[in-house]
Specification:
- Its main location: mitochondrion.
- The chain has helices at about 1-35, 40-60, 65-85.
- The chain is mainly alpha-helical and about 110 residues long.
- It folds into 2 domains: about 1-35; about 35-80, no CATH class.
């Protein structure tokens, strides 16, 4: 009986230790990757994303979009407004939910 409990506790201990080791190894790998230098392809990719982000903020919308893009965008918005009604279709809708009113039934 005591031997079974010891074996059961040792298996629980082993599983807990293995989980902790896996988590620590995974975290160590992430920290190690952040500290080492990126390879050239990753660096180029991140540079292009950052460049696009700054251009997008400066342009206030899509980068290098010509007048034909704006024309198509306006036509699409007009079609959607005709199909789904009024409102600003460029913004996420705001939902307002009212709390239900529950009435206690007499016993």
């Amino acid at each position: 009986m005591i031997l079974r409990q010891i074996l059961r506790l040792s298996s629980l201990f082993r599983s807990a230790v293995s989980v902790q080791l896996r988590r620590n190894i995974g975290l160590s790998a992430i920290v190690f990757n952040k500290t080492k230098e990126l390879d050239p392809v990753q660096k180029l990719f991140l540079d292009k994303i950052r460049e696009y982000n700054t251009k997008s903020k400066q342009a206030g919308g899509p980068v290098d979009a010509g007048p034909e893009f704006q024309k198509e965008m306006n036509e699409s918005l007009a079609r959607l407004q005709r199909a789904y009604g009024e409102g600003d279709l460029t913004k996420f809708p705001e939902f307002k939910f009212e709390e239900p009113k529950f009435e206690e039934a007499p016993k």
